[in-house]
């Protein structure tokens, strides 16, 4: 018998603990070593090499048993003993420090692990040298734990430093060197440098193809990573091409049903879709789904995921109804395999609602979300983010279904919960305020929209600061809807202040600054300041011409608004000048028959006439009429209206005959389009008579009024005021045509009817009486002339 304290007994206990650990019982090993440590400290002392070795093994087994924090404590205690016994530069001490760093990381303190390794590195370089394996391993661990701590750029930098050492020490083809290259590429990508990651993987590929061969699993994995990071680097098409080339080799080397082959097919579909070929993505997934169902079965997770992706890309390819149907098929599988309350099942129900809505069934989407909401509240609770998101989506689809008021009600209730659960400054809360404002607008509540934008503006100002673009946008929307709610003057003042800030922050040529300039001009107009609005549009036009060019659609719109505002401000000459400038541009950009060009001709014609240039107005209306006749036909209401204005301005320009001719053309058109009895048709006939008379064609005027009288009596009756007025005009032009006696006879009959219908003292009766007296006098003069002529003839005859 050797006894419990004999060295062999103690060694045996140590070996027993060791093999428990090796057999997978780390906790049992740790317990045995803890008991052994107490005896070793008693028998050999705390500083004996065997005692220190046991401390080391105890710490390691604790860590292996899942107690990483305990392992750190044990290794730190060991370090204290070792530093006292061995000295700070002993290799065992350096190893213990490495273990402390490792188990800190395993305990969840990645930053602490990184710091410990970074402190260890210079000592390793000093004691062991920069090229020692332990030094290089520590550099590897620094990179690893930096990445775990969220410092991807730092991880990439550490692996780049390591790579330089490894290439010098081990050579570029060594497995450790290749592993370091792989880590450089990976962490570049994780640091946001997707293009750099792709480039690094391409460099790694050249080495692996040379060292391992083109068909080695690591080589194929590298090609997969090249495809992935190309896609993440915004080269989705390049990613798809790289993976399609890889697929050929995977099918040859691993077989068509290998998991890596199948995964690559799924990734090809994804990047096809991301490259804009949603239909191609859907086709690829349809083929993949068939094989997955054959290889893995219909209920496998990968099969269900592929079903989900197929449904999504169908929707993105424009087949919203097909997407909804595919998600409904997926739902049946998920409810059976995962259960109705599984998160993936809920996600699918949400997608069904979305694509129903996208397919035009907004009401159906709302119903689906209402049903989903009940289950989410039951399973996840009212305050879960998925529940809150579903309430937001419900509001959206109710509004899209035409029930904006209901959407507003949902969002108002949702906002109370969002502010309570997430806080008033959370992005989702602020988004809900924006949505509430939008749907209040749709519900016709401009004041309510302004109030919601006010809340959004206050929140963004707190969270983002007053000069953030998002804050400025919210401020803009607040001002706009304050104006729409009736406070145009207040909106004008607020837009002026906003404009100054945007010019300072964004610059005068930024699109948001230009939009504010535009709205400032409109708000001035709404406030009744047409001249101020015109001035604002002048400034806007200068800016747009500088930024976008004079023929850009926005510049043309601003010039049109300037012209219209000048006209509204009674600056007809300025309006005409602006319309003339706009006309030249629209003719070049849009062509003579574009609706905007024709509208510009109309504006030019009106403003030219209002500026006093009747001949110019007539010429412009003639051009407008030609365009309208070409595009719409002469019988279109716009063409007839232009013909009416052409006739009017010809007359105003002194071309009475031309006016009469145009009114004759207008009369024929209105008779065809409106019928002979329409008031506008009869009015055109009235103008024919008036302008024939002014052109000196009294007989033609009388003929027109005679025709008009027949129509007036038939349409309005013989005693209508306009019928009586027509009789007066007819009498007048009969007289002017030389038939004074006929005029007198007509006026006598008319006067009797006026007296009977309107009374003897009515202004129209008195006017007819004046006309009768005038034409009786003319008739007497004419009769006297005729009598003198007759007497002269008689005397002459007698004389002979």
UniProtKB/TrEMBL annotation:
Signal peptide positions (record): none
Coiled-coil blocks: none
Chain intervals for the UniProt region annotation (Disordered): 775-800
Polar residues: bias regions: 777-800
Protein name: Nephrocystin-3
Organism field: Streptomyces afghaniensis 772
């Amino acid at each position: 018998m050797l006894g419990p304290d004999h060295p062999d007994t103690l060694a045996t206990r140590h070996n027993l603990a060791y093999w428990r650990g090796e057999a997978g019982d780390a906790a049992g090993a740790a317990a045995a070593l803890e008991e052994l440590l107490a005896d070793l400290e008693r028998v050999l002392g705390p500083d004996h090499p065997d005692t220190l070795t046991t401390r080391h093994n105890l710490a390691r087994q604790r860590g292996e048993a899942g107690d990483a924090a305990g392992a750190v404590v044990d290794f730190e205690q060991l370090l204290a003993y070792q530093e006292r016994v061995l000295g700070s530069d002993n290799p065992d001490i350096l190893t213990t420090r490495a273990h402390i760093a490792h188990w800190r990381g395993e305990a969840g303190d990645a930053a602490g692990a990184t710091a410990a390794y970074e402190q260890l590195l210079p000592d390793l370089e000093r004691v062991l040298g920069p090229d020692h394996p332990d030094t290089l391993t520590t550099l590897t661990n620094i990179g690893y734990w930096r990445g775990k701590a969220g410092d991807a750029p730092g991880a990439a930098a550490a692996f780049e430093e390591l790579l330089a050492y490894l290439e010098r020490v081990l050579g570029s083809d060594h497995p450790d060197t290749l592993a370091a290259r792989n880590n450089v590429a990976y962490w570049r990508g994780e640091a946001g440098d997707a293009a750099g990651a792709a480039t690094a993987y391409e460099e790694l590929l050249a080495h692996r193809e040379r060292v391992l061969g083109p068909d080695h699993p690591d080589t194929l994995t590298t090609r997969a990573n090249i495809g992935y990071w190309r896609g993440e680097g915004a080269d989705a098409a390049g990613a798809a091409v790289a993976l399609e080339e890889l697929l050929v080799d995977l099918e040859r080397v691993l077989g068509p049903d290998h998991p890596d082959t199948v995964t690559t097919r799924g990734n090809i579909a994804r990047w096809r879709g991301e490259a804009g070929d949603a239909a191609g993505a859907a086709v690829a997934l349809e083929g993949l789904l068939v094989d997955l169902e054959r290889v893995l079965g219909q209920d496998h997770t990968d099969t269900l995921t592929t079903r989900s992706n197929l449904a999504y890309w169908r929707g993105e390819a424009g087949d919203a109804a097909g997407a909804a149907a595919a998600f409904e098929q997926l739902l049946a599988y998920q409810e059976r395999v995962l259960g109705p309350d599984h998160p993936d099942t809920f996600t699918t129900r949400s997608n069904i609602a979305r694509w129903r809505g996208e397919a035009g069934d907004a009401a159906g989407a709302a119903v689906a979300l209402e049903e989903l909401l009940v289950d989410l509240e039951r399973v996840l609770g009212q305050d879960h983010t998925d529940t809150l998101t579903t309430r937001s989506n419900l509001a959206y689809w109710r509004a899209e279904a035409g029930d904006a008021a209901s959407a507003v009600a949902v969002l108002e209730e949702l906002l109370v919960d969002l502010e309570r659960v997430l806080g008033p400054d959370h992005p989702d809360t602020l988004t809900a305020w924006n949505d509430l404002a939008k749907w209040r607008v749709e519900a016709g509540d401009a004041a309510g929209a302004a109030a919601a934008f006010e809340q959004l503006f206050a929140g963004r100002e707190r969270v983002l600061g007053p000069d953030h673009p998002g804050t400025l946008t919210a401020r803009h929307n607040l001002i706009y809807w304050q104006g729409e709610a009736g406070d145009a003057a207040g909106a004008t003042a607020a837009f002026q202040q906003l404009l100054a800030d945007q010019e300072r922050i964004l610059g005068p040529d930024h699109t948001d600054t230009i939009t504010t300039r535009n709205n400032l001009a409109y708000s001035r107009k709404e406030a009744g300041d047409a001249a101020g609005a015109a001035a604002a549009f002048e400034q806007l036009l200068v800016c747009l011409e500088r930024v976008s060019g004079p023929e850009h659609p926005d510049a043309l719109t601003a010039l049109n608004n300037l012209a219209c505002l000048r006209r509204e401000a009674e600056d007809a000459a300025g309006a005409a000048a602006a319309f003339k400038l706009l006309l030249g541009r629209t003719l070049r950009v849009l062509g003579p028959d574009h609706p905007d060009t024709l509208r510009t001709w109309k504006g030019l014609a009106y403003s030219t006439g209002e500026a006093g240039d009747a001949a110019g107005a007539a010429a412009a209306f003639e051009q407008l009429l030609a365009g309208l006749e070409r595009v719409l036909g002469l019988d279109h209401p716009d063409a007839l209206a232009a013909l009416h204005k052409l006739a009017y301005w010809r007359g105003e320009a002194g071309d009475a005959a031309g006016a009469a001719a145009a009114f004759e053309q207008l009369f024929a058109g209105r008779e065809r389009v409106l019928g002979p009895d329409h008031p506008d048709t009869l009015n055109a006939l009235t103008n024919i008579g008036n302008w024939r008379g002014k052109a000196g064609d009294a007989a033609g005027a009388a003929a027109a009024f005679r025709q008009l009288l027949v129509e007036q009596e038939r349409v309005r009756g013989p005693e209508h005021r306009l019928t009586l007025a027509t009789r007066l005009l007819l009498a007048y032009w009969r007289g002017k045509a030389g038939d004074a006696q006929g005029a007198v006879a007509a006026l006598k009959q008319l006067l009797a009817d006026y007296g009977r219908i309107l009374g003897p003292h009515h202004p129209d009766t008195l006017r007819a009486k004046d006309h009768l007296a005038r034409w009786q006098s003319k008739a007497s003069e004419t009769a006297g002339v005729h009598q003198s002529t007759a007497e002269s003839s008689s005397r002459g005859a007698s004389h002979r």
